[in-house]
Structures are given as structure tokens and as C-alpha cells.
Amino acid sequence: MGDVAGGEKPRKIIVAVDESEESMYALKWCLKNLVPKNPNSQHTLVLLHARRPILVYPGFDESAYVFSNDALASLQRRDGEVAQMVIQKAEKLCVEYDVKVEGRTENGDPRDVICEMVKALGADLLVMGSHGYGPITRTILGSVSNHCVQSASCPVLVVKMPKTT
């Protein structure tokens, strides 16, 4: 990549967003601290939302099967609406900054999706929030940010929300 006006090399920054307060805080922090206020900037900010797969467990009789199909369709619709809402909310936060913004929603385990998209899009930096789960919850659910720090093919910045007193 060549230099652009002002001598800055264009960067592609991926910000992982979800419906949490922590991810929106990480986006705001990124915009305030990493995105130049240069109208000629050629930096790209990719707002990436990963939709977790919906797990369906088989029932023991036919009624559970019928219910599962209806419930599954309803959950998929709701997840699509949530994903659209998350991206729109994130895009609104970016309006006042002179940066190219791309919103993306991908399906799959967030740990894998985020790392795959970092590689596929050639990201220079991954920014994500920390939910601040305790050790027990983190052990059960797994830490998306920890996985990305260990596995992503670019530097990862984990933004922690300040504690409220």
C-alpha cells in the first residue's frame, strides 16, 4: 500500500460489534483514538457482527420437531433483526468521522468468524470490547477476545470499559 495525502498509509481496521455496551464503547474509543480527523483519509473501518449459530436439540416426539422448526424460524428472524440493528447503531456512531465504513454480518461462532474475516479482509488491526466476565463464566462460555488475541493474523486491541463506582 502506498502513502496517501498526509503521509499516512491507509489502514483497514475491523471493529467487532455486538449488542453489548462494551462493544459500542470499544467502537467509540477506536473512533476517538485511532481514526484520523482527516477528510482525505483513505482508512476503512469494518464493523463486523458475528451471528452465533442457533443450536437445536432434537425432541423425543413429533411435537418437539414441529415446535423446533417454528421456533427456529422465529429465532433466525430475530437474530437477523438484531444483527441489522447492531450494524445500524454502530454506523450512526461513525457518521461524524471521515472514514470509509463497511458493515458486515457473518454467521458462525464469533471466535472463528472474527479471525477468518481478519485474514480474508487483510485487516491491519482488530478492535474489540471486553465483556469482563469472571473466571467461571469465561471458562464455561470461552473468551472471544482471548481467542482472537491468540489466533488473529493481525494485532488485536481489546478495549476495556472503565469500571463504574
Give keywords.
165 residues, globular, 5-stranded parallel beta sheet, 5 strands, alpha/beta, 44% helix, Rossmann fold, disordered N terminus
Strand-helix topology:
Blueprint: E1 12-16, H1 21-33, E2 44-51, H2 62-94, E3 100-107, H3 110-121, E4 125-130, H4 135-141, H5 144-151, E5 156-160
Parallel strand pairs: 1-2, 1-4, 2-3, 4-5
Domain UspA: 11-160
Pfam families: Usp
InterPro entries: Rossmann-like_a/b/a_fold (IPR014729), Universal_stress_UspA (IPR006015), UspA (IPR006016)
Describe this structure in words.
- InterPro entries: Rossmann-like_a/b/a_fold, Universal_stress_UspA, UspA.
- It comes from Opuntia streptacantha.
- This is UspA domain-containing protein.
- It is a single chain.
- The chain has 165 residues and is α/β, with parallel strands linked by helices.
- The protein has one domain: 3-Layer(aba) Sandwich (Rossmann fold), CATH 3.40.50.
- Helices cover 44% and strands 19% of the residues.
- The protein has five helices and five strands.
- A five-stranded parallel beta sheet has the order 3-2-1-4-5, with helices on both faces.
- α3 packs parallel to α5.
- It is globular and about 55 Å long.
- The N terminus is likely disordered.
